[in-house]
Specification:
Elements: H1 2-30, H2 44-56, E1 61-63, E2 66-69, E3 76-79, E4 93-97, E5 109-117, E6 120-126, H3 130-134, E7 149-154, E8 159-164, E9 172-175, E10 190-197, E11 202-207, E12 210-214, E13 225-231, E14 237-241, H4 251-263
Antiparallel strand pairs: 1-4, 2-3, 3-14, 4-13, 5-10, 5-14, 6-7, 6-13, 7-8, 8-9, 10-11, 11-12
Helix pairs in contact: 1-2
C-alpha cells in the first residue's frame, strides 16, 4: 500500500511539473514582456487546449484593400491603395471578416487588436443578413458604425459611432476616448483593441494597451458579430491580430479577473 501511495505522489509531482511547463510556455509565447503570468488553475490538457486555440484562430476577409498575410505569424495586413482626388472620405476602404469572431478560450469574451498607420475606424459589425454584411467589406465606403448594426471607435474625434439597424448614416455618436492616427505621420502606428461579451452585451476598446472603459450602450443581442476596420485614406494600412501573437493589452489578465469574479 505504501508503494502505491508513493507512486501516486510521484505522478502528482510529475503532473504539476508538466502544468508549470505548459503555463510557462504559454506565457512565453502569447504574453508580452512585463505582463503577469496567468494564475488560473488548469490541467495539462487545458493548457494544451489554450495554446492550440490561440494558434488556430483565423479569419477570411471581405475587402477591396490589398491583403498581405505574414506566413507563420497569423498576422494579416491590409493596405489602402485607393487614390482618388475629391471630397473628404472618397478614399475609404472597408475590411470585414467573413465569419463571426471566435470566443476567446471559452472565457465568454471576444477580442482582437488592429495596428493602424494613419486614420480610420475599428469595431464590430453584424453578419445577420445580406444587407448587414454588404454595409462593410468589398463594396463599402463606410466607416465602422455608419450603417447596418455596427459599433466603431473613430480616430478623428475619439468617439464611438453606433447604428442599431436604422437607416444608413442614422447613427448615434458618443464621446469615448482619445483621438488617434494623426496625419501625416505614417511612422507611428497605434494599436486599437476591441473586446466584447455576449453574456452581458458589453463592449470596450483599448488604445496602445490601455483599457478605455465600457461603451455606455449594450450591444444588440442575438447578433453574430465580426471584426471591421476602415482605412480612411491612401497609404493608410493596418495589421490584424486575432491572438496568434501577444496582445498589447493584457487580455489574459482581464479574462482571469472576470472568470474569478464570476466564480466567487
Amino acid at each position: 500500500m505504501y508503494e502505491i501511495l508513493m507512486v501516486c505522489r510521484e505522478w502528482n509531482v510529475i503532473g504539476e511539473q508538466a502544468k508549470d511547463l505548459w503555463q510557462t510556455m504559454y506565457h512565453a509565447r502569447f504574453q508580452r514582456l512585463g505582463q503577469s503570468m496567468l494564475d488560473i488553475p488548469k490541467s495539462v490538457r487545458e493548457w494544451k487546449v489554450w495554446c492550440a486555440h490561440r494558434l488556430g484562430l483565423s479569419m477570411e476577409y471581405n475587402t477591396r484593400a490589398r491583403i498581405l498575410a505574414s506566413r507563420g505569424t497569423g498576422i494579416v495586413a491590409f493596405f489602402n491603395i485607393r487614390h482618388r482626388s475629391g471630397y473628404w472620405g472618397d478614399n475609404i476602404l472597408s475590411v470585414r471578416g467573413e465569419e463571426k469572431l471566435q470566443e476567446y478560450n471559452a472565457t465568454g469574451w471576444y477580442y482582437f487588436e488592429t495596428k493602424i498607420w494613419g486614420q480610420g475606424s475599428v469595431g464590430i459589425v453584424s453578419l445577420l443578413t445580406a444587407e448587414h454584411r454588404n454595409a462593410y467589406g468589398f463594396e463599402s465606403e463606410n466607416h465602422v458604425g455608419w450603417s447596418s448594426v455596427a459599433y466603431g471607435y473613430h480616430s478623428d474625434d475619439g468617439k464611438i459611432y453606433s447604428n442599431t439597424g436604422g437607416e444608413d448614416f442614422d447613427y448615434s455618436v458618443e464621446p469615448y476616448g482619445p483621438t488617434w492616427g494623426e496625419l501625416p505621420d505614417y511612422d507611428k502606428p497605434q494599436i486599437i483593441g476591441c473586446g466584447y461579451t455576449l453574456r452581458t452585451n458589453r463592449l470596450f476598446f483599448t488604445l496602445d494597451g490601455a483599457f478605455l472603459g465600457y461603451f455606455s450602450e449594450r450591444l444588440l443581442a442575438g447578433i453574430p458579430y465580426t471584426l471591421a476596420v476602415s482605412l480612411h485614406e491612401y497609404r493608410s494600412h493596418a495589421q490584424v491580430n486575432l491572438g496568434h501573437q501577444p496582445f498589447c493589452f493584457d487580455f489574459d489578465q482581464f479574462c482571469e479577473k472576470h472568470i474569478f469574479s464570476e466564480m466567487s
